[in-house]
Design goal:
130 residues; single chain; mainly beta
């Protein structure tokens, strides 16, 4: 059974940083892509970043490029999202999700807005105050 547990959310002032963690179990980590998504109140869930554990490729939404960094520790089966220069508009519940690694699925999710990941964590709240 795929299990994903997020942690690291919290309240931070604008300009601050947070690091989210996604601990994964129940599947072959190296064969999966892990994505970070967020959903703000009244808005649709959107893709933030994704990493392919198969080849290490990373992807970012335009809104977070240059500020967020995704990384993966395959020994710990954990994916991180380092968030710097946070803005109030980054406030949302952040989720990690997993999907068997498929470049077409990653591209569709990150560039076409079609979220095709099927295994989800419970989410962690990130609040950025102005």
């Amino acid at each position: 059974e795929v299990q994903l547990v997020e942690s690291g959310g919290g309240l931070v002032q604008a300009g601050g940083s947070l690091r989210l963690s996604c601990a994964a179990s129940g599947f072959i980590f190296d064969d999966y892509a892990i994505g970070w998504f967020r959903q703000a109140p009244g808005k649709e869930r959107e893709a933030v970043s994704c990493i392919s554990n198969a080849d290490g490729s990373t992807y970012y939404a335009d809104s977070v490029k240059g500020r967020f960094t995704i990384s993966s520790d395959n020994a710990k089966n954990t994916v991180y999202l380092q968030m710097n220069s946070l803005k109030p508009e980054d406030t949302a519940v952040y989720y990690c999700a997993a999907e068997p690694d498929d470049p077409a699925i990653i591209r569709a999710t990150m560039t076409l807005g079609r979220i095709l990941f099927n295994s989800w964590g419970q989410g962690t709240q990130v609040t950025v105050s102005s």
